[in-house]
Every structure is written in C-alpha cells, then in structure tokens.
Amino acid sequence: MSWYDRREAWKQQGEDAREAGDIDYARVIHSASFRRLQGKTQILNLGDSDFYRTRLTHSLEVAQIASGVTKQVAKDYAGKPICSHLPDRTLIQAIGCTHDLGHPPFGHGGEVALNYCMRENGGFEGNGQTLRILSKLENFSENAGANLSRRTLLGVLKYPAPFTATNNMTPDLDSSTSAIKLIDAKICKPPKCYLDSEQDVVEWILKPLSDDDKTEFQHIVQQEKKHHKTKYKSLDCSIMDVADDISYGVHDLEDSIAMHLLSSEEFERTVPAEECVSFLDALKEKYPEECGNNVYDHFVGMLFGSSAKRKRCISRLVHHFLTAIEVVEDSNFSEPLLRYRVKIKAPQGKLLDSLKAIVREQVILSPSVQHLEFKGQKMVVSVFEAIASDPLRLLPRDAQTLYINSDIKERVICDYVAGMTDIYLLKTYDRLFSPRMGSVFDKL
C-alpha cells in the first residue's frame, strides 16, 4: 500500500516520464473546476479590473509559495529526517492549486447559504466540497473523479472529521425579521470538516495509517455553543495552509490598498510598529540607507506609495514570512506525514496575524463588502430553492441525469450551484427572477 496509489486502476504508459505529482498537477490544472476559479473573486465581486486577484490567481500564488516553503525547509533542515518526507515540487503545487476548488460563488456568504439549503441533507462546507470535486465530480476517471494519488488527497484533507461529528449548530432563519425571510448567518456557518458523502474516500486515504495514528489524527475537540473542530493536519496540508495564510495576509492586503479599501491611517491604527518588530528589524539590517531613521514610516510609505514601491514591499513581506518557517515534530504519530508539520515562527507569525486581521476587520467585514455578501447569500438561497422546487424542469440536462441516479438528490443541486462562478450565479438569478432578463439562447 503506497501513498502514491490511486483509487481507480490506472496504468501509466511506458513512454510517460512523469511522476505521481506531475500527473496530479496536470489533472488539477486542466480541470474544469480549476478554470472556474477565474470567475470567483477573493474579496467578492468587486467589478471589472485587470488588477485584483481572483481565486484562480490566488491559488496559483499559494501553489508557488507552498513550493518555496518546501524548498526553504529542505535548506534549513538539510540532513534532518524530515527532508526525506518532503513533497516534490509538482505535488505540493497540485495541493496548493486545489485548496479553493470547493468554494461557492460569493465566498463565505455563499458557503453559509448552501449550508442552510443542505441543512437536512448533510450540510455544505467549502473544503469538504474540494475533496468531493477531486474524488467524485471531476471527469478524469469513471468513478474516482480526478483520481489523484493518495498523498495529494491527504494534503487536500484539511479537516479530517465528518460533518455529522463536527456540526454543533442547527441552521435556521433569522427570527428578528418579519416582512422578509433571511437566514441566520451566525448559526448557518458550517463546521470545518469533510462531507459525510465522502466517508468512503477518507477511509481509503487513511488506510495506510495504523489504528492509533488514524484515531489520533481524527481527534475532535468538543466545544460548547460552537462547532466542534479537528486538531491535526498532515505535513503537506500544513505547508499549503502556511502558504495560504501568507497569500491571504499579504496579497489581499495589497489588493485592499490598491483599490483604496484601506487607508494608511487605518493601517497605522490597527498594525502599529510594535506588531511589526521582526520585519522592521529585517528592513533596517538589509536596507539601512533606504529606511532612514524611522523604519516604520518607511514601511507604511512603501505600502501606500506608488504601485512599484508597494510591489517591492509586498515581495519583501512574502520573503520575510517564507524564510521564517519552522518544523514541529509530534511524537503522537508514527507516520512521518503526520509526525511532521510546519508553521511560521512566533515573531513573524504575530505580524502575519495582524495583517490578516486588518484585511478581515477593515475590508471583509466592512459594510460596503458585507452588502454584497448579503445580496449574494440571498441569491444563492433563491437559486437553490427555485431549482429544488422542480429539478427535472430547471436543472440542465446533464445534471438531470445525475439527479435521477443520485441517492441524495439535493446534493446534485448543491454541486451545481456551488460550481457556479459569481457572474453565472448572477445571470441564473436574473434568468429565473427578473422579468426582462434571460433568453432561450442563454447557455445553461
């Protein structure tokens, strides 16, 4: 039994020089679900622009940073046991490129909406949907989706516990409204998990583990009045997770500043100099003449200065975090892919947490963005419930066939809606509900 086995029998042709990671990377890059990420934006649907990041460009950046983290660990821990267990470049890039495949239109608003819609049929969670896409919905095999290697799927398995074991809140409508029906976003937020529909896939992924490793890896931390949560990630997943944090904290910050969603005054108030000590020290050491006497002012000036200065500053931030990786060894596990994980060292991690927090608090949770998330959430529910009212009338022909043959028919509708881009969801909503919108020639 190998970490490079595939669920469905597949024989590599003799002239094919690729390794398992190369094959997985190719299948991800050429998948329909990966291409659809170009129509899903990072900070909702902000309008036409040639600058801001979509989930596609974000995923490519995560894959590149994950590759850099792997190389950095190999350099810093040369000769250590972990080096023989690090993923190769294409395998970790495949994992990085997949990490957002399951996110629905309109970001976390869409995720909350679909969890409400699926409240009686197994729920919905974006990371769980990623595993479902790769293991069942993609078309590279007859019955195993993209049929990726076991190790790649282990890296994709970000939360190794099922929905039913982690779910601790019942989705419902908001009781504070009377004239309109709205879902309660707080209690409709899904747990971090995989979907129960992929239980067979997870059992296959974890098959090489000992019983003790498997039990510990799937350990759930119980919480009151909150969803329960998992405790562990695999080595490859931890590399991807660090890369995702770096990209979110740095690149989403860059977009927020470039689109004037964040001011220098807000930045200075939320991320003061004492939060930036590790980076300021690095700047002072490497660029003493450029920084002058006040390194923090120079840092803020670069971020909020010209696009060229901001890009150099963003590059330096990424370098600062990427070169601050440490390996954590957990003696609870005998399997090396679980025994070793990576994380960002504490001083640099403190700054990264502050950057992530300012993007969340000042941008993501701002009224201007939340209005769009609220509207998107409402449209997702409306489209789902309209289709569910008469699936064989409103689903596209190919989805109708899947619906007829499915044991959980609502899951087919969920898969269809979750796979929509932001624009396609908008057009579908208009087609179903706007009197003057829609044509018989529209492609479904």
Strand order of the largest sheet: 1-2
Total of DSSP H or I helical runs spanning 4+ residues: 24
CATH homology group of the largest domain: Hypothetical protein af1432
Total count of strands: 4
- How is the main sheet built? 2 strands, antiparallel
Overall structural domain count = 2
* CATH fold-level label of the largest domain: Hypothetical protein af1432
Computed CA radius of gyration, to the nearest angstrom: 23 Å
CATH architecture of the largest domain: Orthogonal Bundle
Share in helix: 55-70%
Mean pLDDT: 92
Architecture overview:
This protein has 444 residues and is mainly alpha-helical. The chain folds into two domains: 20-236, Hypothetical protein af1432, CATH 1.10.3210.10; 238-364, no CATH class. It has helices spanning 20-29, 32-35, 55-76, 89-98, 107-117, 126-137, 150-156, 163-166, 185-188, 199-205, 211-217, 235-258, 264-270, 277-286, 288-291, 295-303, 307-322, 336-339, 346-364, 367-389, 391-394, 397-405, 409-418, 422-433, and strands at residues 220-221, 229-230, 325-329, 340-344. A two-stranded antiparallel sheet has the order 1-2. Strands 3-4 form a two-stranded antiparallel ribbon. Strand 1 (220-221) and strand 2 (229-230) form a beta hairpin. The relative contact order is 0.13. The model is unreliable at 46-51 (pLDDT under 50).
